[in-house]
Amino acid sequence: MRTAAGRPLLSPAVAALLTALLALAGVVAGAGPARAAEDVATEDARIPSGEGADAVELDTTLYLPATATADDPAPAVLLAHGFGGSKDSVAADARDLAGRGYVVLAWSARGFGASTGQIGLDDPRFEVADVSTLLDVLAERDDVELDAPGDPRVGIAGASYGGALALLAAAYDERVDAIAPQITWNSLTTALFPDQAGIEADADTPAATPRTGDAGVFKRLWSGLFFGVGSVPTGDGLLGALTGGGGDAGASAPDLSGLDPALVTQALTCGRFRADICAAYQSAAASGTLTPEVAAVLDRSSPAGVLDRITAPTLLVQGTQDSLFTLGEADANARGIAANGTDVKVVWYAGGHDSSASERVTGELREEVTGWFDHHLRGTGPDPGTGFSYPEPTGLGGGIGSVQGGTQTVEVGGYPGLSGDRVRRTEVPVEGGVQPVVTPAGGSPAALSTLPGLGSVTAALGGTTLEIPGQSAVFDSAELTEALDVVGAATVTLEVAAPSGSATLFAKLYDVAPDGTTTLPSGLVAPLALTGLSADPAAPTEVPVTLPAVVHRFEVGHTLRLQVSTTDQAFALPVTAAVDSIGLADGAALSVPEVPGSVQATAGSTRWWVLLGVLAVLALLGWLAARLVGRRRSARMSVASPDGEDVPLRFAGVTKAYKDGFVAVRDLSFEVRRGQVLGLLGPNGAGKTTSLRMLMGLIRPTEGRIEVFGHAAGPGAPVLSRLGSFVEGTGLQPHLTGRDNLTLYWAATGRPLADAHLEEAIEVAGLGTALDKPVRSYSQGMRQRVAIAQAMLGLPDLLVLDEPTNGLDPPQIHAMRDVLRSYAETGRTVIVSSHLLSEIEQTCSHVVVMAKGQKIAQGTVEEIVGTGGAVLIGLADDADADRAAELLAGMPGTGPVERTEEGLVVDLGGTSRAQALAALVRAGIGVDQLSPRRRLEDAFLSLVGES
Fold this sequence. Notes:
With 947 residues, the protein is α/β, with parallel strands linked by helices. The strands form 8 sheets. The protein has an 11-stranded mixed sheet with strand order 1-2-4-3-7-8-9-10-11-12-24, with helices on both faces.
């Protein structure tokens, strides 16, 4: 959100008047707030389900709003959790829905949390049958609305594991009235054994992806993570696995005496999984092959085969940052359900299994789900329709390096291909001759595309993908003369020859900048399991290929690169060495899907006519605003702290908690001195943006105090006029030139144009002649630079920037680095929030590291990183610090030992970490941690891991 909060325009009275006027015009809108958490009662219960050996007890919590009574019953919502979670994982969403008047039932699926039984992977015989049991329970309550005796008015929502359960439950139990599955699968077989060789016949939707046939490429790393979550229980969890009990893990080792050794081995191997699922995984992990037995287990847990039974209106939410369940899974679900005539709405968002969504996006998705249930369960609220929305494309990567996803949403009347209007495609020619590619023996070394499930961390590292020389064929387009927004899955036809008649390949669509920098959108690859290939390179086999579905903007001057590799570390690979040949079919071109729509303004991108309307009202009420601002200024001016001019920013015990119990920031304290460039670091969800929003007066802290130049900072505080900010998007008006945007923005502050230092800000940001062209023609990088110039107007004493280098190419990033350092050298102060650790390391003098809403480290970059080959040694007992320091200092080649809040930092020189650790242990010194501190990313990962 781009905000002028640093320069208060209106008193509360005038702001309230404007809000009222705009609300009458239909400009201000929003969902009604949820009731306070204290209006929601909870009831815990253990509900029996199943029969015989498959009988279990489900651990449940019912969230009951005060408004739901026998005289006025309410619709109900079942909330299912993700894999590895429990009913506690969805507690915040449950309270929110209950606060809006729904009776909400959350439960731990069998094998998870405190529920008994074993994991069946959403098996219709077990987990889906459990849902029917819960529906029976709801139907017996007099405070739940009924459609008929035994038939409650009910919706089901859930993500991932819970999302598939919602789909399956709607297929198997006709009492389900509406569902909202998120980031889930259509076919578990296709998701874990993908094969994107081929093009879906008659599929006119943007993300149509081939469904796996008899073979596929085993998604080895994701499957291992998936299985590992539910395997190898310890303590009480092991005893539960041996006796059919629950999935809670105890802390102590169990007594296994007297138990059958075969049962113990199975429990240790399979953990909480049912035996057939365990066997299927072990078969797949050992061979990497999709056998009929494995396919039977996965197909049983897949909605794909029962979509024709779903009549409940369906909201499908899928993430663009998801290498586990891609956009193609939601596409297949949408096509299958819509074929019944059932209402389907599709929402793509910036996030997924590889990267958490931002707070803003999370809030918007919660409103989408609530609006869906309001209309389809209550019959209230506007009809959400059967449209389609996706994040506005940007030129940023979403794999290793940075996070993809614009700050605005593009709305489309319907999901292309479901209502007869096929997706629009653009043909982009690519060139490159026939190229030999090597498959290494054992599949190693292997290319690196993304780290499954770790997008929020890997995106912060500023790294790139890794391609192994000789293992891939490359085909490039010409430089683009106009920006290209890819929304969905591109297709192309290759020609492949393999001496063995088969090959495993991985197709990728790279974005190549003019300086040669490559970006792999969302870090996604398309695995290809090819058989029946020609052995003759002179007569190759044509192979149609569907590339990964992405949302990405290829900027002017960039090229599209099709790269086809023989390895990828996330997948099972052939063990036999081979040399194959890959080329393009005659006349082949990339067929790229585009989905035009209307960009919807968010809280940070006000429509230009709204801004003009506000200015018009200001003109009419100018004299009133001036008087009220003048009166309020003296009344609100607080007594400044004596060191206020030397400490431009101080957080003291700041906490931000929301009504649903979620704590975004907890007890945050730090200071920033004049002339410093401070980097605010942390993974998604760390609380960085919330902290900046409190600093700018957009939201109030629950506890604590924020001082700007010694004065209390809050909504409308006069001292905020000394602050310039750029947070969550540019908010520029596309029909105006960059210069007009800057001029209009400054005019809204009511200050003389001479005070803007307009030309200085333009020069500092390096905007050039393009400043006099309409913003709609700008690249993402140019928009970013105009927004930063806007933040610098008036040359504020405190400059706050959130992700300032998003959309900039390397030369622009280098220039921005110099701008920020030079700005601080004038005695001003700069705060930079960023995911790009390399930029923080090269730009900032000081760093504050946050995780889960708390500060976990603060200091200069040198203090956080350490020097040279330094390591951080965390001691079990601080009383051992002196002995440990003396011992380390006496080792050959070690440098000085530095004491920090986290432990001892020392350059070991020629001493290995193993030798240092062994010496400490021999001396009786307990060591909790020994980690490298050579780079900021090492320190960051270590610190975040500890938190």
